[in-house]
Batch of 2 targets.
Target 1
Amino acid sequence: MSTSKKYPKIIVTAIFFALLLFTFFASRDHSFRTHMRSSSDQKAAAQKTFGFYLEPVNEAAKILFRHTAPEVDPKLRHIKMQIASMGAAVSICDFDNDGWNDIYFTNSAPESKNALYHNLHNGEFEDVAGRMQLADVNTKDAGVSMGAVWCDYDNDGFKDMLLYKWGKPELFKNVGGEKFERVTEGSGLPSWVNANSAIWFDFNNDGLTDIFIGGYYNEAFHLDSLNTTKIMPESFRYANNGGRNFLLKNTGNGKFEDVTTRYGLTSTKWTLAAAAADFTGDGYPELYIANDYNVDEFYVNKKGEKFEEKGREAGIGHIPKSGMNASLGDIVNEGKIGVYTTNITEKGVLIQGNNYWQPRTEQSSAQPSFVNLAGISGIENAGWSYGAQFADLNNDGYMDLYVANGFISAKQNTSYWYDYSKVTGGNSAIIGDAKNWPDMEGKSQSGYEQDKIWLNNPDGLFEDVSGKVCPPATYDGRAVAIADLWNRGVLDVIVANQNNIPTVYKNNSENGNHWIAFDLQGTVSNADAIGARVEVEWDGKKQAQVVTGGMGFSSQNQHRLQFGIGKSNEIDQVTIYWPSGRVDKIRNPEINKLHVIKETTKTNK
Amino acid sequence: MQQEKRIKNESQSSALSQWLKKNFQYVPPAFITLILLVGQFTFGMLENFTSLVAAIVTSVLAEIILARVVLGTRKNLASAYITGISVGILIRSNMVWPYIATSLLSILSKYVFRYKDRHIWNPSNFGISWMLALYSVNVAGLSIQWGSNLLAVSVIWGLGLIIVNRAKRLHVTVTYVLSFIILAYVRCLITGDAFLAELSPLTGPMYQLFIFFMITDPPTSVSTKKGRIIVAILVAVTEFILRLNDLIYAPFFALFLVGPVAKYFDLKRNAATIPTLKKTERIPA
């Protein structure tokens, strides 16, 4: 070989091997199965570095609930772990108006009992579900629980409960905080929905909260007694053969009218989550729907008279993923509320990534447009994610993020991913029939994954502190709820885990940061003020939050809204936009205090 | 009148045939572009165009530069285009750098791994296999399917078969597909899974790109028809073994392992008289 040819060849070879090395090392930096050790030093180190530590306190709080999975038809036994992989849900509600948050967990095996943990104000909880008649709700005939959301739908001052199931949804009326009455019959709720999501929201701002229930499996199927195995999604990315959704308009007197078709929510995608907030500035809430096996949907509310699906126009409806969560949060303190949706990331197999859809248009735009900031914010790859919630865990003024991870933790060091990939990459006739799905044989799939906790830093980037601010959390997390359980001005985290105990984290916060919280009560608007938007301005920052009737995955946060403000001693102004259109402004409110605010009858500036 | 019409039709057909023969090198790139367009406009198979453009531009630029620097020649860029577009379709990442790296590795491999002045690895197969084998959080393979639209699948299979037939590589595709089906049946007997589950991957777009573009690639396939049939069977058998070991990207890895070895022995055997493929037969990849 001549010298003139030899040197270029050597250089090219060197570049080639350097690139091999670069790609090798660039691929070694991530694991969702972090094995961490809890140590006595961890708590002190976390408090010193991050200002908080999440300590599991199930036993101390006397929360002994354990979730059990639903039963499935014997024809699905070979993939039972896939099918029966949801149902662990958690919602927060102060059902007796004593000013302390209570917790409701759903169970999913027939004859299993749901639990309502009443807050005893002394750090302990008592399960009063039996006494309140909210425990024995899971039966073969009526279906099994998948989640619950609370709302004072009859504006009597006490929060009632909607229980959604793989079965008949149920409505329970709260009678003075002393007991619940089942008022499903005659209420207009559908006879059967295989639902994994529901929210309360007042879509027409008439002061009566309405219901959205998202269908997952087609409602024709009772999953524990099937006469077919053709129940699976027709595609991993383009499936339209899921359950129908239900939009139920509250007409008063405990009646709900099915207006789904009239309002244009006719999609039959596989819905797993929903969240509602006003993104157009017209006062009416839009509806974000996260779908498994297809694109998410974004329904623009046309003055409470109909919805128009504008997902593609909004930028969120182009790439089909595995939407499993929809939670709202303002991560940059610009008063822009975005939507965080979770999907699947499995190393080398499926890289979907989670999304954070931040509005890029002004709130007054009739056609909102979103940009996905998950990648550049560092909150994209979590694992097989389900529920997620934003919360300022250290009250530093920036909303942090908790993401529940892990699909099926069965036999250690096994994986169903190869078997899964065989059918999910195939034609609809194959994937759509459960009998073609390989036997799981007890294998795990994205199991033993660590829940993600991302700390929002002032530079706009989130820092992964999962291994640092709590002991290992590798249950199969599903629903996440945020609440100040002990009225301390810090936000605690409750995670419902599939087939396991929940994790009740007490937030041990030692940072000297300040906070403010608001509990809104509507007078003209619906009693729970669902849809109200609160903007807190301090130190040149403006953070917005919205009162919801459920968001995330199968979950509902506390009703009150809490804002951390860091070391600031003063808040400049708080603006409350009520669903009725009224606007209240509060200047220099007292900090480190929960403000219970009743909607004024005329605008207060 | 009818005869005139027939003569005119025959003449037109002959002209088309001549044109195709003369310009066949552009047919495979056009076909893979068609697959991309069908996939994109019916299902939105690409997550963004930036990554695809990055893969193609990297591939083409690398080919121009390396051909000039290493070989001192100019090369037809159809091959590099197909490599780039294959990488853009078959790799999935939330970042752009894996597309650039995969394309660059693919083209570089052509100039690094050479025997008897011929490259022995299919370029895109090398780059994609390497990146997938890293088992990274940044890179995965194409995991989608053509939804329930049988028309799109039929069009792609129909056109694909016509083109590989034209390129005199139909026997490779048919041998591999038949081997896959037979071995899928054997696998279902071993694993106890449904036959359709074992057959299922063949219905996805990943395999369509594999059987029409990678395994048929003339520059890296062996010189005799019998040899190519044997290699196709060996690839299917290797894939069969890898599948029994739960490797999702078994076809890429199988070709990665079998292809270069076969090419090496073929070149060695024919060292004295390396057959030059007709330009019109090439499906560059």
Target 2
Amino acid sequence: MATKASRSAARLMMAPAVILLLGWMLVPLTMTLWFSFRTYLPLRGGDQGWTGFDNYVRFVTSSSFWPAVSTTLIIVAGVLAITIALGVLLAILLDQPMWGQGVVRILVIAPFFVMPTVSALVWKNIFMDPTNGLFAHLWRFFGADPVSWLSNAATPSIILIVSWQWLPFATLILLTAIQSLDSEQLEAAEMDGASPLARFFYITLPHLSRAITIVLLIQTIFLLAIFAEIFVTTGGAFGTRTLSYLIFQRVLESQNIGLGSAGGVYAIILANIVAIFLMRIVGKNLDT
Amino acid sequence: MARSVTTQRKTINTTIAWIIGLLIFFPILWTILTSFKTEAQAISDPPLFLFFDWTTENYSTVMERSNYGRFLWNSIIIAGGSTLLGIIIAVPAAWSMAFVPSKRTKDILLWMLSTKMLPAVGVLYPIYLLCIRLGVLDNRVALVIILMLINLPIIVWMLYTYFREIPGEILEAARMDGATLKEEILYVLTPMAIPGIASTLLLNFILAWNEAFWTLNLTAAQAAPLTAFIASYSSPEGLFYAKLSAASTMAIAPILILGWFSQKQLVRGLTFGAVK
């Protein structure tokens, strides 16, 4: 069908995008790999030559490594659990007949469009501030002592902020998936006497499984990289230093490029493990 | 086909959904309300909900004091420029993949997607260093290019899924009538592709507007967009709730409005066509 001429034209048209992305991937990646094998301290003597795998070993044996790993896992798992559980419930709710459905949908989706620095700052000051925050007012109203959220319960607070940002995404995708569910199937089950709970577990949930997997994978990739929310709220203090934040600090704050780059390589490998699963699903979808 | 629902059940659904919807929206609503209070009212205990002296003073203060216009302009240039540039580069690529697919098309698409998964922090220093060496740290053009590269995979993917929905027969008919490749693209494909291109433009503008890793790390006084402007309020001396709220409201309002138009595209764009 396609002629030879159109094939080469097609290649030509693809070239700019492919070349740019190839450069965007290869150049920095090669540099990161290169730096990761060198002792490179721009402010303290510059590039001091090869060190083999020293940076890799030092990155994982440093005292901040394992806490960072566990913080990352807690934040990612916490946000995933909250957004997916609430997202499924919200999607089912929003799929029900009601008045003003469109408006409710808009209200629920809105947080996704708030820029990360704004949501972090608004939560940090207007809600979680121990003196003037809205939560402090609320706590005092009930006679309780206000909590210093971002210092005494820093990780849960960040999970709350990030969940608020990502719940709309999960809800929207799950809602889209739920709307493709054949309602006759549910009606048939209802007529056969299946309880609402049984209908949920045997019809709705299996139907959603693919969408849930996709939400899980995409969110994991973005959540592994959250930055502004931590940068603005705690700056990595009070046990909120994630793996990406640790790498950021090594690179820009302590200017230990070798060490930070080794960390970067670990982060890239980690993200790729998640990405492989996502690509498989997306790839399968391309064939149909 | 639609299930008959009792009014009673519909009322219950409506009530629960509205309560939850308002609860989720509340932080935004509260920020908007606070932006119209005086600083004293903004922190008053008990909090004032609607009955306070509405004032727009905070907005004028923020605009006067902090050179808000420049940050806004930077945001528009960076988000708009990177999106437009991305579209210009992505349209031919997506077109050829959708209409002249080869055995490798799928691999190329997936590979492009994989570059999107690259954690930014992993390549932070190389990009930072390149910007310094090229003298473009804190430069709008550099950010336009970087954000374009970050969003290019999504742009290509979205356009590809839209283009695939255009029936190929129409293009063949045009070709048989003697249309050249240029004419084919200009007069046949473009008009049909405009809705898809518009949605892609919208979603990627939003993503670029809210991008808060590169914009925070690669800008200072000159090229900083609104993300960085807001982050500067986290310093203690900037802690004025009403002004923070006014600045925040101005930063998110345009995107909230655009965002509501892009709900559907959001799903397609961010799941790479895997959920429709």
